Amino acid sequence: MSIRIDRENGLITLHTAHTSYQMWADRLGVVHHLYYGPAVGDCDLRGLEYYSDCGFSPQPAGMDRQRDYSLDNLCQEYTGSGVGDYRIGCLRLAGPDGSRAADFRFVSAEAVPGKYALPGLPAACDNGGECETLRLKLKDVVNGLAVTLLYGVYEAADLITRAAVFVNEGEGTIRLDKAASACLDLPFGQWELIHFQGRHCMERQPERAPLGHTIQTLRSARGASSHQHNPFAILAAPHTTEEAGECLGAMLVWSGNFKIECEVNQMQSTRLVAGVSDDDFSWTLEPGGQFAAPEVLFCYSEAGLGELSARYHRFLQHNIIRSVWRDKPRPILINNWEATYMDFDAQRILDIARQARELGVEMLVLDDGWFGQRSDDTSGLGDWQVNEAKLGCTLDQLIGQVREMGLLFGLWVEPEMVCANTALYAAHPDWALTIPGRAPSTGRSQLVLDLGRPEVVEYLYGTFHRLLAGHDIAYIKWDMNRNMTDVYSRALPPERQGEAAHRYMLGLYDLLGRLTRDFPQVLFEGCAGGGGRFDAGMLYYCPQIWCSDDTDPIHRIKIQYGTSFGYPPCTMGSHVSASPNHQTGRSTLLSTRAVVAMAGTFGYELDLQKLTGDEKEMVRAQIARCKQLQPLLLEGRCERLTNAVADSCFTAWQFTAPDRSRAAVSVVVIDPQANPWPIHIRLRGLDPDALYHESLTERVYTGAALCRAGLTLPIMQGDYPAVQIMIERMESV
Ligand code: GLA
Fold first, then answer.
1. Cβ atoms 172, 287 nearer than 8 A
2. Any idea what DSSP says for residue 683?
3. pLDDT over 60 at 733, yes or no
4. 479 catalytic per annotation
């Protein structure tokens, strides 16, 4: 049993293989958080609590003589509002009488086998006997607002999921203005916040800084999880490294506006609150109404950041991603975007496909520009009829010829958007998010459809269901190329406009849920101008996401490095593109571009016909090597051997098979040096006593030698050279 409820003492303990989590409902019904950290066995940790009268911290009713008891200083499982806790809170609300208070007290706790589900939201699954659920109900007895805190305890995976479901059990209307998913109070320790900031073409760059007595907020108000911040944060002890030290992560399973806030209080305890952003948010609960706050995945490691990432990778791979593709090597694809942009006809696409097939590519993806009047990015989105005049044939004729070559066919779509000069917009101007009387802002000349309206979701479902049912399509790239403005739904009354952005996400999840259910064999790749919506919510539907629009391998190393803290490499769309690179103008070797792209779902995105004969041979060899590496990428453990953001000369990473029989080490020179120092790397996670063959110098070493003494590489100079070294365990000694 991973959940223990000691009703006599009000203690609830959650156990995973290596961690313990304990909480306690006191005699007032306030639920204290006692502990989350390395496993401590079965014991009562109330002795860890520290009570003192710290002045100006108020006492709840009934406790006025006990000056050392204040909600302001207690570590709590979930906060109320306006009743004496001045730290960042989980909740803001207006009760039926306009009062802003909520005082949650314990009602019930039950442990049930299996994993809870959340209405309308993606959430981690149980593949059979992996999880136990704690349902902890709290309630404000005055206004009737009840919240059920849900905990999914995954013992073997060492992961605890949390979510919160609100129900108005009172008689009047309650408006939620903030409704976080979870609060985590850490009574002791000094923590540093690691988060992932960025911009279009440079997503998820780690930043690490100590938490102070300020509030630090990571947020998106863009209607998508965003290029700028990722809904994932790590708290790490000051000396925590890749291989050692304490750290814990909080990752939202959510793709819309979010907030993760951290604060150190006057008594040096640290609070983290995570959930849907409260900016421009409100949700009205009529009596009986319900609101579900998205899931957060908490994971704790005392073995450094590498172990934390490995646990998230395994969990996302096995418990979040639902697609039948999740454990399968993905088809090696050629995408025409950087080869042609929107300037193509079927002949040009078929030429690209033919060349790709000859070299061993397995799927052709036709990107943007095949539909409506779309010859550039100022028109066409919303009119999803095939532009046969541009192609010079029907879609089926094109697909037929691609399939005859022996390639799978994939297609780009951007369902959530509409251009103002389309038939769809002319027919349904009220389907776009716009404010009455106000000319809307555009982004990439497009408006955002109001997916909070069921009829819009129904229309998109019909349109894309027909597309997938009517054609032989194996893959969909689901793009989303602007952030929201003018968030106003014509279908909602004025007082409910604060629900529009959230309802959009529920509509999107509904749409993606239905299409992926109806077409389980189709491989969906998420995209939002590259990695502008790279999160666990999207991974629930799409087993891979285009990691960034920046395909320059020297930048891509940093982007994939940052992304790998939370997300498995097999979810990162990564392609070999042309040199000089279209985003940066930098020239790099074809071999280097391939080494970097092989750290994700591999493909090409350039005109292969323009390659020299030698280069074509290299592509053939790269595809063969990629096929050997794909199992390692899917099942292996990824080690960040260097810090790609701080590296000055080279970056290195390693994939290791679960049974430690093989590893692949990649090294890329990011700044070639004159009179260079040797490149020296230490590998990780090999069997110390086994003998391994190393492919670069063809020498044999013990695992201990490779991990402790390391490898010295030959000098590498030129246009960013790279090597891939295969490490294979020798069968007999
Ligand atoms: C986005 C994607 C690109 C490409 C274009 C097409 O920017 O990230 O890969 O599909 O849209 O318009």
1. yes
2. -
3. no
4. yes
